[in-house]
């Protein structure tokens, strides 16, 4: 079971960015990974971009071409490609890695791309600006903190959608529990409504035996879809 059928170099690169390194170091790793990122996630059979885009498209009322979407932690543009295939055309992206943004820019799928380190600085967007916001693959241990949820809500229009994903592998379970508590608190406050929480068994290939779900060689994950409530909660302001 060594390596779960993945090339050692791929395993090492994936493990490096998930290790608990400090933020500047992690962003440097992402910059360095940008050139090999897409071939590595193909080797991982990483299905999150496809699953997230399919889920959002399912929830989203037509028409899609005019809808404004923000792809948070957009990486090289994998999510944009899937959204584009489903008729979404007005995409903006933000990421903490300049190297990743450079790749995303070369896809030609985004109208605007900006450098933004989520959790450290606000999103570079006015309030209630987007019809949908996606955060695919970045909500995890040592990555984007669950404290960013109100900031994601801030830039979403009332009635707009938020599509979030996280992993369910052992090393991310504590984070996942924190995330779900934060999601639930915002729902209780009337900030948004949960439309979907879809557990997916074959999310991506595991990089180690310990992380694999019941010896499958894969880890599982979740797609969440929330809709921002049309009436703001009274505590704000």
Automatic annotation (TrEMBL):
It comes from the Eukaryota. One of its GO terms (molecular function) is S-adenosylmethionine-dependent methyltransferase activity. Residues 70-160 form the Methyltransferase domain. PANTHER family: METHYLTRANSFERASE (PTHR43591), METHYLTRANSFERASE-LIKE PROTEIN 27 (PTHR43591:SF101). This is MET27 protein. The lineage of its organism: Eukaryota, Metazoa, Chordata, Craniata, Vertebrata.
């Amino acid at each position: 079971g060594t390596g779960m059928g993945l090339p050692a170099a791929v395993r090492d690169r994936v493990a490096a960015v998930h290790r608990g390194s400090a933020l500047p170091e992690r962003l440097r790793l992402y910059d360095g990974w940008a050139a090999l990122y897409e071939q590595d996630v193909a080797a991982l059979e990483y299905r999150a971009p496809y699953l997230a885009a399919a889920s959002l498209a399912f929830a989203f009322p037509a028409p899609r071409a005019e809808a404004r979407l923000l792809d948070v932690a957009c990486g090289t543009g994998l999510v944009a490609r899937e959204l584009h295939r489903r008729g979404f055309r007005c995409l903006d992206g933000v990421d903490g890695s300049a190297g990743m943004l450079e790749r995303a820019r070369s896809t030609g799928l985004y109208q605007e791309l900006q450098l933004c380190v989520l959790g450290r600085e606000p999103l570079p967007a006015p309030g209630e600006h987007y019809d949908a916001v996606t955060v695919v693959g970045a909500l995890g241990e040592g990555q984007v903190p669950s404290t960013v949820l109100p900031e994601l809500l801030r830039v979403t229009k009332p009635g707009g959608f938020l599509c979030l994903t996280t992993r369910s592998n052992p090393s991310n379970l504590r984070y996942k529990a924190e995330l779900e508590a934060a999601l639930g608190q915002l729902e209780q406050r009337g900030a948004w409504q949960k439309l979907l929480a879809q557990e997916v068994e074959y999310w991506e290939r595991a990089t180690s035996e310990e992380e694999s779900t019941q010896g499958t060689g894969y880890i599982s994950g979740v797609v969440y879809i929330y809709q921002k409530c049309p009436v703001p909660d009274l505590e704000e302001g």
